[in-house]
């Protein structure tokens, strides 16, 4: 057997480029978006930001033009809240205009309960339950955990050296490991993501409650007492699918030709525009476990 | 009559009794099999006069009544005819027609041995063969073994699956491989049967050769739709392969040696015309040739090394005829691919040494026992018991002795599937209008998706012996079927039936009722219209990421979470027989499939079946197309021309199981056009030439055509501090593609030529075969990728294709005695 290599001519349609828009409004924070020019797969140019797009946000009908645009980042003088209708209007000299809208999800409500801690020779185990309250209309979630140490001498909370708990041990043996026990297995499976994604499919009913454990190497914490900060985010469906795809792409083995490629989710796809208009609303809770 | 009238007028009561008697007699005749006059059954076996091999699908026709039948898989036929003189015509493609007149006054046994004759001047009734235009069966193609052996293929090895890939409606996978994709279905949706027993992995050497040794095979029929009710368990196709029984008159043999492999086939009687045997062995031999070279080179490096790859197939069959009514068949098949490496390093003279060894083997083993018995002239029975095993084993070993301290490490990986099957099939020639088949099967499956054993001994305190992986999964598959071939009249024939079954696994029972229906209407004596419907279920999947067959491909059963695959298929077509020489057909189909599996984005099954249910998604698909076939099976010029226009799509839109956001996307082997021209010309007994030309639209591939800027998501939290805020200024390039299988590779076409030179020698016939694969050296794409190329104007990115096989000549020598 011998092999032969040959170049394939590529149709011009495959060499088209897009204006890539990433807009993920977070309730309670100033709205911004990023626009850049994509590069086709045979181009060696760097992806460059686009600053000459006319960008406007209509928030519940009120118009907010972009107040600044630099390095592809456009900021707006508006702060969306849960339930707001966010409309994005973009126009550029060299392509047709784009209009897309999305409704901000309501911030979820949840509580932390049943906190406890135990340990063995090597690890502390911080246990707690999370209960979601009546997530009407909220279908997609993300939860992340951080852990800060508390010195036992003066109970000072040192958040400058916090740790991010990840779903599996990420590289080093000293990183805290977060595990969730959910009624049915998460559709995400096992990954190194620092947060868990789940949706209505994960649970049989609407009463979401599951127990969590953060396993932490004693070398890291040194003390039994810890401050756990949980951030539960409600996401729009598109934001949820976008982030999931992004994590799957980051964590796949690019050297393995037998792995399926990951398709980036976009809810903006026209002949000229590509990208995401998402939406995020966060609720955070923290508790001291000792 | 007058006398009767007088009686009834004078005696009314007698009139009633007489009428009652006549009515009863008529009713009895109407509802008994011999309703219309007296009938008898003509039954027998049709064989080859020279070898004694039974002929499958030979036509037995009474030209007076027009009633006929074909021999079954064991060469037996049964035909119920009126008690009258019959003008019998027995015909089979490639054999002289036999005409006989007899008077059927009672049930009669007629065994006939036919003489081969390729250059026929008499008319042969090709339309009556099981897949002909007069048959009710559609979407089925029978390929004569002579045609398969004449098709020029890679390295000169005649291959059944490579020939099947040239048929309309059948797509091949990647260049050179044996995978088949039938009417939009995947490679695991095909049932391969050898003497009625399934084979799970029919590929050697990554699919470049199939497990079928053409010297051991008698008959090959491919069903693409309108499946008879006795077939089940796969969605897309059934390839029914029957092996040779053996010559019952004298010992014959064939030996051949080619570029890659050597084959030998011996057949003959153990007891003349009673017990026969057939033995075939094929093995590659390159490893034997290069071993001395490896050993010589390694010894210069101070090591003793041995490495190689080979595959082999062994087919063995014994047939014993107790009587004309009773036969016993014992079949055995074993085939393996083996990769091995052994290295011994002696790095000092005081007895210290290291051993490393690796052995990787995968393959099938099949054993079957079948008993045919004619319970009565109309009822034929076949009972069979079989065992089939596919396994895939990797073994790694290390041993060392250093300063008298011994250490060892062994690791094994095993996966596979075993089936134990019991089956009963009955053929009932019920009456002149109805031929009924019924029966059932019970299969006990033992799946071993993946087991890894590790043991090491590095000293007193450092030992381990453990087993990890998925334990065996036991499942049972039970089915009952019944089908009736109903000859309504000369123009209309209907076949209807159902396969009732169930699959039990992990305390879950999946029942199924799978109806089958097909009909034929003769528009003229040469032209027929057929239509058919079939509903199929499949209870197991093949996990495979790659486009070539790999030994790590895993067979797994359905589970509580993964439901059986299902397919509905309708087809209709016109079938025309031109002057009893060429069969034309044009057939359209639509197939809808449900519970298909695709892998999640980012998933890979390379050597890891654990948690496979979490890595697959379930969705649906559909395929439709039109197939055209013109086939000539005898004469100096034989072959076929096939064209397929088709489309195959997938849609995964269940919540939490979406691909492409739930929008349809092309299936992996969606190819719009497919053309095959296969011709074989035999002007004399000393020389024949064959040629094939194939064309197909390019394969699909998933290619990232854009790179876009996205936030570096891990920095969402890594850089935001303990009091989280959204947004990060860090970005990263991410590849983007519009949907799976978004890119169409360049089209594929090639031509192959084969020449055979025969010469009669003292003890047999010798044949030199010269064949050329890819005659005009077409660079067909195998995979596509991007890389930097340098040119006069500097370096740039280019889309490249890798081709696998350029023009490849080959030669082989065969001696037949």
Task: Tag the structure with descriptive keywords.
heterodimer; A: 290 residues; mainly beta; five-stranded antiparallel sheet; 21 strands; B: 817 residues; Immunoglobulin-like; Maltoporin, Chain A; 4 domains; 22-stranded antiparallel beta barrel; 51 strands; globular; disordered N terminus
Walk me through what this model shows.
The complex is a heterodimer of chains A (290) and B (817). Chain A is mainly beta. Chain A folds into 2 domains: 139 residues, Immunoglobulin-like (Sandwich); 131 residues, Immunoglobulin-like (Sandwich). Chain A is built from 2 helices and 21 strands. In chain A, the strands form 3 sheets. In chain A, strands 2, 3, 5, 6, 7, 8, 9, 10, 19 and 20 form a 10-stranded mixed sheet that branches. In chain A, a hairpin with a 6-residue loop joins strand 13 and strand 14. The longest helix of chain A is centred in the C-terminal third of the chain and has 15 residues. Chain B is mainly beta. Chain B folds into 4 domains: 29 residues; 93 residues, Carboxypeptidase-like, regulatory domain (Immunoglobulin-like), CATH 2.60.40; 570 residues, Beta Barrel (Maltoporin, Chain A); 104 residues, no CATH class. Helix content of chain B is 7%, strand content 58%. Chain B is built from 6 helices and 51 strands. Chain B has a 22-stranded antiparallel barrel. Chain B has a 5-stranded mixed sheet with strand order 9-16-17-12-13. Chain B is globular, with a radius of gyration of 31 Å. The relative contact order of chain B is 0.10. The N terminus of chain B is likely disordered. Strand 1 of chain A pairs antiparallel with strand 50 of chain B, so a sheet runs across the interface.
């Amino acid at each position: 057997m011998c092999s032969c290599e040959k170049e394939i001519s590529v149709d011009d349609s495959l060499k088209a480029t897009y204006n890539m828009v990433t807009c993920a409004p977070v309730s309670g924070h100033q709205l911004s978006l990023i626009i850049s020019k994509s590069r086709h797969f045979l181009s060696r140019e760097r992806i460059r930001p686009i600053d000459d797009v006319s960008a406007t946000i209509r928030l519940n009908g009120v118009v907010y033009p972009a107040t600044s645009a630099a390095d592809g980042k456009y900021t707006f003088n508006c702060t969306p809240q849960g339930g707001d209708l966010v409309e994005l209007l973009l126009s550029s000299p060299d392509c047709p205009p784009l209009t897309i809208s999305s409704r901000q999800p309501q911030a979820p409500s949840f509580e932390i309960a049943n906190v406890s801690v135990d340990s063995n020779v090597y690890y502390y185990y911080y246990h707690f339950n999370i209960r979601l309250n009546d997530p009407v209309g909220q279908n997609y979630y993300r939860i992340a955990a951080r852990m800060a140490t508390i010195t036992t001498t003066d109970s000072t909370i040192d958040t400058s050296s916090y740790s991010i708990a990840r779903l599996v041990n990420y590289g080093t043996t000293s990183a805290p490991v977060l595990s969730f026990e959910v009624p049915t297995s998460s559709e995400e499976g096992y990954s190194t993501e620092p947060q868990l994604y789940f949706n209505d499919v994960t649970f049989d009913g609407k009463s979401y409650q599951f127990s969590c454990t953060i396993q932490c190497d004693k070398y890291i914490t040194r003390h039994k007492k810890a401050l756990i900060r949980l951030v539960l985010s409600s996401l729009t469906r598109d934001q949820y699918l976008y982030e999931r795809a992004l994590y799957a792409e980051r964590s796949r083995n690019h050297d393995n030709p037998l792995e399926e490629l990951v398709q980036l989710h976009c809810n903006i796809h026209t002949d000229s525009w590509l990208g995401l208009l998402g939406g995020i609303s966060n609720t955070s809770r923290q508790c001291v476990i000792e | 009559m007058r006398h009767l009238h007088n009686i009834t007028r004078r005696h009314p009561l007698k009139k009633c009794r007489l009428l009652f008697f006549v009515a009863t007699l008529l009713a009895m005749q109407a509802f008994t099999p011999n309703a219309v006059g007296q009938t008898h059954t003509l039954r027998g076996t049709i064989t080859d006069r020279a070898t004694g091999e039974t002929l499958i699908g030979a036509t037995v026709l009474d030209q007076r009544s027009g009633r006929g039948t074909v021999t079954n898989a064991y060469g037996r036929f049964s035909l119920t005819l009126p008690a009258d003189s019959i003008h019998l015509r027995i015909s089979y493609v490639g054999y002289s027609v036999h005409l006989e007149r007899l008077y059927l006054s009672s049930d009669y046994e007629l065994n006939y041995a036919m003489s081969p004759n390729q250059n026929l001047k008499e008319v042969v009734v090709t339309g009556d063969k099981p897949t002909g235009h007069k048959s009710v069966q559609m979407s089925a193609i029978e390929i004569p073994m002579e045609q398969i052996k004449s098709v020029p293929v890679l390295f000169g090895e005649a291959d059944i699956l490579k020939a099947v890939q040239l048929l309309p409606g059948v797509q091949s996978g990647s260049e050179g491989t044996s995978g088949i994709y039938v009417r939009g279905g995947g490679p695991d949706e095909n049932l391969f049967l050898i003497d009625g027993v399934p084979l799970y992995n029919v590929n050697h050497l990554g699919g470049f050769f199939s497990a079928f040794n053409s010297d051991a095979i008698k008959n090959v029929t491919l069903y693409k739709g309108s499946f008879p009710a006795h077939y089940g368990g796969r969605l897309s196709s059934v390839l029914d392969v029957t092996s040779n029984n053996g010559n019952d008159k004298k010992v014959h043999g064939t030996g051949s040696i080619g570029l890659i492999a050597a084959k030998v086939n011996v057949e003959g009687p153990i007891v003349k015309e009673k017990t026969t045997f057939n033995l075939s062995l094929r093995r590659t031999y390159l490893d034997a040739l290069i071993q001395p070279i490896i050993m010589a080179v390694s010894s210069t490096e101070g090591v003793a090394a041995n490495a190689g790859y080979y595959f082999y197939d062994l087919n063995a069959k014994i047939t014993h005829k107790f009587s004309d009514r009773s036969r016993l068949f014992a079949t055995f098949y074993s085939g393996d691919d083996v990769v091995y490496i052994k290295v011994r390093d002696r790095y000092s003279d005081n007895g210290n040494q290291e051993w490393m060894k690796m052995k990787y083997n995968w393959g099938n083993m099949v054993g079957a026992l079948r008993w045919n018995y004619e319970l009565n002239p109309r009822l034929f029975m076949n009972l069979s018991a079989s065992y089939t095993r596919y396994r895939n084993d990797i073994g790694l070993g290390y041993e060392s002795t250093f300063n008298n301290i011994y250490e060892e490490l062994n690791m094994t990986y095993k996966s596979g599937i075993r089936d134990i099957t019991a089956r009963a099939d009955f053929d009932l020639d019920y009456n002149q209008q109805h031929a009924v088949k019924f029966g059932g099967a019970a299969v006990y499956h033992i799946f071993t998706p993946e087991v890894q054993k590790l043991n090491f001994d590095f000293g007193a305190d450092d030992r381990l012996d453990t087993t990890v992986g998925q334990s065996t999964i036991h499942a049972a598959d039970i089915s009952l079927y019944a089908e009736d071939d109903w000859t309504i009249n000369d123009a209309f024939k209907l076949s209807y039936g159902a396969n009732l079954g169930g699959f039990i696994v992990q305390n879950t029972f999946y029942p199924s009722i799978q109806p089958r229906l097909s009909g034929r209407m003769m528009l003229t004596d040469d032209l027929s219209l057929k239509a058919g419907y079939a509903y199929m279920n499949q209870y197991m999947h093949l996990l495979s990421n790659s486009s070539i067959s790999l030994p790590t491909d895993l067979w797994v059963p359905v589970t509580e979470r993964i439901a059986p695959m299902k397919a509905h298929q309708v087809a209709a077509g016109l079938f025309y027989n031109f002057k009893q020489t060429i069969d034309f057909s044009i057939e359209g189909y639509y197939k809808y499939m449900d519970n298909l599996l695709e892998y999640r984005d980012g998933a890979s099954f390379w050597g890891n079946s654990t948690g496979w249910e979490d890595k697959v998604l379930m969705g649906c698909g559909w395929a439709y197309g039109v197939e055209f076939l013109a086939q000539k099976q005898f004469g100096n010029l034989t072959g076929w021309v096939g064209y397929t226009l088709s489309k195959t799509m997938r849609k995964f839109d269940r919540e939490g199981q979406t691909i492409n956001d739930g929008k349809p996307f092309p299936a992996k082997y969606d190819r719009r056009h497919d053309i095959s021209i296969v011709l074989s010309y035999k002007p004399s007994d000393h020389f024949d030439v064959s040629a094939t030309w194939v064309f197909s639209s390019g394969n699909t591939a998933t290619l990232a055509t854009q790179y876009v800027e996205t936030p570096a998501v891990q920095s969402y939290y890594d850089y935001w501090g303990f009091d989280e805020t959204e947004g990060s200024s860090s970005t990263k390039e991410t590849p983007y593609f519009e949907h799976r299988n978004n890119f169409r590779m360049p089209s594929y076409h090639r031509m192959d030529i084969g020449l055979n030179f025969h010469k009669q020698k003292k003890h047999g016939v010798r044949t030199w075969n010269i064949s050329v694969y890819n005659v005009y050296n077409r660079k067909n794409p195998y995979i596509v990728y991007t890389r930097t190329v340098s040119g006069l104007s500097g370096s740039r990115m280019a889309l490249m294709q890798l081709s696998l096989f350029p023009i490849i000549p080959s030669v082989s020598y065969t001696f037949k005695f």
